[in-house]
Amino acid sequence: MIIGVLGAGQLGRMLGLAGIPLGLQFRFLDPEPNSPAAEVGNQIVGSYEDDDSIARFADGLSVATTEFENVPASCLRSLAVHVPVCPSATALEATQDRLIEKRLFSELEIPTPPFLPVGTPGDLLSALNSTGYPAVLKTRRFGYDGKGQWVLYDAGSTKSLIPSLDTSPDALILEGFVKFDRELSLVAARGRGGDIRFYPLVENRHERGILRLSVAPADGTTDVLQRTAEEYVVRIMQALDYVGVLAVELFQCGHRLLANEIAPRVHNSGHWTIEGAETSQFENHLRAILGLPLGSTEPRGFSAMWNVLGAPPVVNEVLAVAGAHLHLYGKEPRSGRKIGHVTLSSPDRGSLDGKLERIRVAAPQS
Ligand code: AMP
Question: I need a labelling partner for 102 at 20 to 30 A (CA). Which of 62, 112, 215, 331 fits?
């Protein structure tokens, strides 16, 4: 069976690494030649908007999926004529625009930060009257890793930002700034028959808008918090008739959870599951889209996942830490770029912090 993956980055690579033992083969479509996933399958170098590339990609696939949420929905719709596509174009579209996504949260009665659409500088000023300062202005589409967003602290910073903004009608959204206690995420898989499995809540720490560290399970969560997050994910997955793995990023404020965004794919905060859970998010995504039984999402002890950003790590020092597992994605190092990750696994939570300190030294950011 050949699985088609739109995008050939590290997520595609890890899907391939999870699927090869299951006897699966992989084909990737990505405009960038020699992408990280090309080492675990065949890559078609082509545009997501080119009919010929899409037809060559689709030929003989059992199912197509995506590792990249900004694939044009038109590409998924063209593919769906030839082959089952999971998640669907409609599901992906709901997550590609922050305004549509936040409206979905509201319709599903999932708490989310206050938000308002912004089309013109006048809209921005009246939206700021409603949110107050500080507030977060974001592009509705194509934002990632903190790109395409600005924290507005006062009228002065707003005034100086306005001339550089794209103020076309559908470009921007303003959100109230949430003084959260911490950031969490929930990764879950939904099979073709509608069965859902949840991984435990994970705590995520970001630096300069990029995920740096995930701790799984998150410290100090309660059953109520886990069940609340699960209930929100069920509503989202059922509303979108979602098949596959998705992640919901959440802000924790006391006992409340506010949904920030949906990632309609395997997620960086789920990488720890490769060694740290009974079944990884990558294998469960494949099981889900193929209509196979989902695997157990039980954690095996405690895990911490550290992203390797920008510079290659000192491999000897990383591997000298007991319980450390190194994943390099075959990407050229570049400042701030995710080029790999390290997962630390341990039967006890107490020993993780000391080991993490050693990993921080062996894999510093550049
Ligand atoms: P996003 O691209 O929406 O995931 O945002 C990137 C990061 O910016 C988040 O992980 C938060 O740390 C921060 N952030 C985003 N939205 C807000 C908000 N409304 N209030 C406070 N911080 C935010």
Answer: 215
> Mean pLDDT throughout 242-260?
98
Q: Ligand 1 centre from 267 Cα, in Å?
A: 16
Return the best residue to mutate from 97, 250, 260, 268 for the ligand 1 pocket (most ligand atoms within 8 A of CB): 260
pLDDT of res. 334: 93
Ligand 1 centroid distance, CA of 205 (Å)? 11
pTM for the whole structure:
0.97
Q: Any bridge partners for residue 304, and if so which?
A: 215, 344
Rounded mean pLDDT, 234-252: 98
- Distance between CA atoms of 88 and 191, rounded to whole angstroms? 13
Give yes or no for a contact between 278 and 293, defined as CB atoms under 8 angstroms apart.
no
* Closest atom of ligand 1 relative to the 260 alpha carbon: 3
The pLDDT, as a whole number, for residue 364 is: 86
What is the three-state SS of 298-343?
CECCEEEEEEEECCCCCHHHHHCCCCEEEEECCCCCCCCCEEEEEE
Interval between CA 180 and ligand 1 midpoint (Å) = 10
* pLDDT interval class at 121 (50, 70, 90): confident
Sequence-distant (6+) residues with CB within 8 A of 143 are: 98, 149
pLDDT at 96 over 80: yes
345 closest CA partner among 294, 289, 290, 271: 271
- Within a 10 A sphere around the Cβ of 337, how many other Cβ atoms? 16
